Amino acid sequence: MIQDYYGLKNWHSYRYKTSQENKNSSIAKDEVALLAERLEFFIPKLMKIMRPWQWMLYVFFWSLFLTVLERHGLTTWSEFLIKFLGRLTQNTLIVMPSLYLVDYLRPTFKNASISSVSIRIVLMMMSASAIATTLVMLVMVNVGWIEYDAKTFVFNLLFDTLFAGGFTLVFLLYFLRIYRQLNALKLSFEYKLATQNDLIKARIAPHFFFNTLNTLVSLIESSPSKAADLLQHVSALFRASFTGAHEISFEEEIALCEHYLAIESSRLADKLEVSWQLPDEDVMYDMVITALTLQSVLEKMLINVVEMTTETILIDIKATWQQHRIMITIGVELPKKTLIVNHDLRQHMDFYIQAERLRAYFGHSANIESVVDSTHIITVIDYPLHDAGL
Question: What is the chain's Cα-based Rg?
Fold first, then answer.
């Protein structure tokens, strides 16, 4: 019943969208908003969990269960029925008003701490139990259904009051557990959503888009043929960026990087030199990588190093495939005359998102690490890939 309120039937779809089985799915913002709405307070809206008649049905069977447990002191069916009616009336007087009262005080409770609210609700349920027990037992004594005994009266009053408090505490702990699970799930959604947004931004960086447009505009007037070539490079790169994170051949990734570097070279002129050390074509034919992984690493190198200086920067790219592991090393020489703060550069050389994409396809041992010193940046893309030829 409570699980239905919290949308546990929807948890499967939430977890599915953040699982490995559905890596490319998007997390809808309305689902995150719905989850946030349910996290306003750790206690749900009790009268929305079930309708009043459904609560009464649970109270009925709970009262019957308690009466059966106490049947050892009952000798006839009439005594059993009287005991059951007393329990039913008592539990109804405890549960139904308390549910409405908790929902009514919910706006006030939301501004208090969880411990404070829990203490208030436990005390409220214990008070309701004490009052209901007293009323029911006095009525039954006056009607003549039971005989008054002070010790029995006090014992039943204390037992029922403490039992109601303990039972309420168990439910509150259960609500709190579900609340924390939902909170963790909400944080997971927000992280996945932020990651997807970062990936989109990485695919089409705004500065790259506008710089490319400006370059095209200038080339259309001065050199239409170069503009046409540049447009072909842009078309190939953008087409790949919209296909999403997927596994492509290493040759295709190299082609995408060459498209990207050709676009940037038209703007950076003689500031950029790139050296490739690649395996033979028959080896690269069997190599695979997640799309735009190497390209996104090169993009960060250009943004944070090449664009910050007037000197010519050499980027050396070397790829090897040995012992069932692919290692791509990207080395960048830092400018000698331009001051680049290493601390800031280390912060910009963060490839966490790209590494996560690699791990999603090639396992947890896949990684991207970058080391920055006074003269170089060395970035290594390392991931396992079984070589059937070995």
Answer: 34
